[in-house]
Amino acid sequence: MNRVEGRVKVTGLATYAAEYPVEAVAYAYPVQSLVAKGRIAGVHDAAAREMPGVLAVLSCEDPPRLAEDADAELALFQSRDVAYRGQIVAAVVAGTYENARAAAAAVRVEYDPDDHDVALRSGHPGFYRPDVVNPDYPADTVKGDVEAGLDVAAASVDVTYSTPVLHNNPMEPHAALAVWDPEGRLLVYDSTQGTSPDRDTIARTLGLPREDVRVVSRHVGGGFGSKGSTRPHAVLAALAARAAGRPVKVALTRHQMFDVTGYRTPTIQRLRLGADAGGRLTAVEHVAYEQSSTLIEFAEQTATPARVMYATPALRTAHRLVRLDVATPSWMRAPGECPGMYALESAMDELACALGMDPVELRVVNDADAEPEGGLPFSSRNLVMCLREGARRFGWRHRDPEPGVRREGEWLVGTGVAASTYPARRRPASAFAFVRDGDYVIQVAAADIGTGARTALVRIAADALGVPPGQVHVELGDSDLPEAPVAGGSMGTASWGSAVVRACEELKRGDGKEGRADTTGEVGNDARLARHAFGAQFAEVRVSSVTGEIRVPRLLGVFAAGRIVDPELARSQFIGGMTMGLGMALMEETLTDEEFGGFLRRDLAQYHVPACADVPHVEAVWLDEQDGELNPMGSKGIGEIGIVGTAAAIGNAVHHATGHRLRDLPMTPVKIL
Ligand code: MOS
């Protein structure tokens, strides 16, 4: 079955947020702070107001009304304080985009700057322990005695890794189009991963009842987390439309996205692992250092995968945060698990080397039959089968463990392995199923961010109804549809699908004409088991001894993620995640400008992501995993696990190829030579 929206996408008929045809539309263009910290002394906009087509200028000089408790990243123009370079401090509304941009350039903002601090560094005096980390885990956990475990270890490692600021770069830049009706109701076409939560946040920020706000987002060109929470462009569109008395469009440029749509926090991670002579872990300690802004505490759950992965008598995990003069970090594909597993799985490889043990076998002997930290039994856990199947397909048993000895001309060749994991969660959702003209219509405020969610839901509904997929039509991407959670945390299909199945069952149970469902009660019962997807990643690398260039001729991922709803969509999610992991390993990095604040390399010419030529052979396969303890589909999320572990597998292969251990991502040629 092809993607149900494939034809409208490839023919250009699919409408994205910035493209809705609206009468008398105007445009808002933001003015961004040029200092990283300070106070706005004055906004001089007289010249801008005289420029052609200008309808309004927004700033803290005459602040538009917003709710007192608005999220600090969304409370536009409410304060004279500047929290980071690039923050939106004013905006110009004009009849054309070009006039708005030109007038925005003519707004002069006067600052009283303060000294700023934008650099995450080890030993920063500002580090503190947050109360919880995302989404709501304890910041620190301790089980057993780590020091005692390290004392008795036959081999141990004490290693520190770092990962840089990373930016989500969806193909479709963030955009919003706001339209107020004469009764004061607001319609926002927004590029968002969830119309229901976006509607709620916009309503709360503007101080409106949520019934008076509607968000429409039928097609989204990727998000990777950056569209998972409401971003300032949507609030700006609403405020600007109110000020101008016309519909207003805000379409961010790629440069602006780097400043105001979130990023992955940089991390510094210290791992201490010990094992006995047989490779069984005697201690695991994972301490993650990361940043947030002065506006909001965003505490990424970087050390949490260590609470899930391996059996050990002594386990300590901890998170330390420092509040810097930077934009607030946000969600980026597998927040927490992705950088955390990079460090843990690299350290496991170092431990295998220290023990003289095969890294696949090291992971196998430390497999856990219950969650190591909390002791909950797993609903299913097939990490060992993923490792075994991956090793078989990859040809692992022919591997010579000696590092730095395989040479083909200028190229050093090596292979590496790492494990993957991601939680399998779901959230309450609601759905409506009914008959229209002899076909079945499914309504749910789900989001299709390029993943193929519509198609997956057609399959799920067709299965539940026992009808051909061609007879099912899914309507999503509109907050007026039955309420649904965000496309995030790899929870979309599990959450929406559960509601869709229940609505279809209601339809069949009743008069055959309609059925409604809300899974709030059902989802509340999920807490007695640990539910996670697992995987194993294998990489082959070739490292040029002349240029330091790293090529990755082969990547293989084997995943155990419950029942796979749609093989084509799943493959695309897995290999997309793995490709993004390759980018993290070798290319992606946003530099922080320590002198002026803000970020450097704010476009795709300098922020490098992998292109097709960089990934000649990425293969993803999966086990046929049966798990009756998940949801009606038996599925685990697949959107994020593909990126987890990939960078470690590549880094471990680079060590195998060269004999050198690079502990600071990305592994660029300059670090190799
Ligand atoms: Mo994803 S980073 O959970 O939107």
From TrEMBL:
Organism annotation: Nonomuraea diastatica
Keywords, alphabetical: Molybdenum, Oxidoreductase
GO MF annotation, one: oxidoreductase activity
Record carries keyword RNA-binding: no
Protein's UniProt name: Xanthine dehydrogenase family protein molybdopterin-binding subunit
Domain Aldehyde oxidase/xanthine dehydrogenase a/b hammerhead, first and last residues per copy: 11-115
Pfam families tied to this protein: Ald_Xan_dh_C, MoCoBD_1, MoCoBD_2
SUPFAM superfamilies (UniProt xref): CO dehydrogenase molybdoprotein N-domain-like, Molybdenum cofactor-binding domain
